[in-house]
Batch of 3 targets.
Target 1
Amino acid sequence: GESVGLHLPTLSVQEGDNSIINCAYSNSASDYFIWYKQESGKGPQFIIDIRSNMDKRQGQRVTVLLNKTVKHLSLQIAATQPGDSAVYFCAEALMDSNYQLIWGAGTKLIIKP
Amino acid sequence: DTAVSQTPKYLVTQMGNDKSIKCEQNLGHDTMYWYKQDSKKFLKIMFSYNNKELIINETVPNRFSPKSPDKAHLNLHINSLELGDSAVYFCASSMGEDQPQHFGDGTRLSIL
């Protein structure tokens, strides 16, 4: 079936630097994409989403980029802080499937002091 | 106030038992979900439910059944528990199917 994958299972970043977490998706018909952050012992926490009619969306310290040509999604976190340490998931969905989220495997972000 | 709350947080039980996990949301959302997260952190949708429609992931065994007494609650009942059911189960809710989902903190189910 269709699936969403992540390029790197673990990403180590120096505190204060920018982090970039990448995600590849396989279904070109997907029209909704979303990023979540999951801290240990907690449920996934919504970060930012983007629809297929956009290629960039910004939030507070985060930016999501969507490249439909190569079916690639990225999450950029500016000025990474210790509190950003978590597992980050991307997910895709499409209207024809009632927007059921198909999740990637997750990337663990480690912040180095 | 917790937006999406699940009980219990931990559930340890023996194979063959029947158990339920409760979920409540105070966000006024119309759609609720159940997910299973395995030991490798992989998340998989089990059910989505709103006032009108229950959508079941076809891979979910029929031992699992969602029950919704009202719009704010979606409980998960599991019959004849098996070892492979050990996982963390997450409840979530959203305003609509194409809106961000808000998750509870999970129920860790361990089958002995």
Target 2
Amino acid sequence: EAQLVESGGDLAQPGGSLRLSCAASGITFSNHAMTWVRQAPGKGLEWVASIYGLGDSTFYADSVRGRFTVSRDNSENTLYLQMNSLRVEDTALYYCAKDQQLVPLAYWYLDLWGRGTLVTVSS
Amino acid sequence: EIVLTQSPATLSLSPGERATLSCRASQSVTYYLAWYQQKPGQAPRLLIYDASSRATGIPARFSGSGSGTDFTLTISSLEPEDFAVYYCQQRAIWPLTFGPGTKVDIK
């Protein structure tokens, strides 16, 4: 069964750092672009960052560019999100999601999601 | 950035009724639009991509239409499990953006 499992969410102070992980199973991880999407409590979905299957290209929302870094280790079937200079407004449930298409294409439609990991930024 | 506007914010209907949800883009996204369903405590699920193509395993009662700036998700006859929040998402131009969602609740 295809599955994505996020981890690493925690309580962090403003200005602090966290690294989120997303472990993939049941899929050929390197064949798919991957995306992080977040959802603040009681709010809608917000795209955060995306990365191509080989990790050669990345894309960021303006709200996180320069603070967050998306990366992947295809040998470990794992996606990462390094989050630095955290702000209160980064508080959210962070989902990782798989692209619907196979490399070299990326359609940026998300057909498999994890259950999310909660990041809380507060002093 | 392309802004997606969804209407109505809330749709109150009974099981068996037809649901029509709207998503409007601030500029053309051609047909590069998807719809997701999210139930409380669950991750979103892809329903429709490229405006009108059903994702794998999605029942035929879900259909999408539209192009350019105006899109519609139709649920032909609501089942109890369809009461949820629905989001549209565009992939035409970076950044990827989502609409604010339409909540379909039980009347």
Target 3
Amino acid sequence: DADVTQTPRNRITKTGKRIMLECSQTKGHDRMYWYRQDPGLGLRLIYYSFDVKDINKGEISDGYSVSRQAQAKFSLSLESAIPNQTALYFCATSDPSGGGHTDTQYFGPGTRLTVL
Amino acid sequence: AQSVTQLGSHVSVSEGALVLLRCNYSSSVPPYLFWYVQYPNQGLQLLLKYTSAATLVKGINGFEAEFKKSETSFHLTKPSAHMSDAAEYFCAVSGGYQKVTFGIGTKLQVIP
């Protein structure tokens, strides 16, 4: 079984709809991340969480919110989806071997979201 | 501030030829440098990581990268390309308490 799972894997929705993307992990890691991937832009960090009580904005958090329900679960919500949020979304985890963000990250398989 | 620049969004090599994917970085603190690989319809996985222990870093699947501080580079190489190496490769930098910054990615095509 995969260590980091994401649901759904594909989602098509309409402008203005609320969408939740879910991430679960069995790696026992405290740190979790949400990224979006766009062609030609690489990966950009949306939100990250270093433990259940710690939530931080990344570089592109506007229009998104997150919830860390447990160590193993980290959900990303789009309150009112818009077409430019069409992208591939990745969840990742890491186990802190040092301070900061220098740990190896383990990625889920991604969710392809299309907003019409 | 930190950044990475990957030269060449698409690289094509013949099977058996040398693979060279270029990455230059900018960092105001001693950097940690990463190469991740993304196979089609999958998430990213770590190929190798530089943590200042050794300038030549060996990774999985025969890949290696050399940290050159004077050139601010961390290029990824493999002596002989295999068809299974076709994927997208991302260079990334972190350091201190700065968040990881990913490059735009380089798609590697291997021609039989």
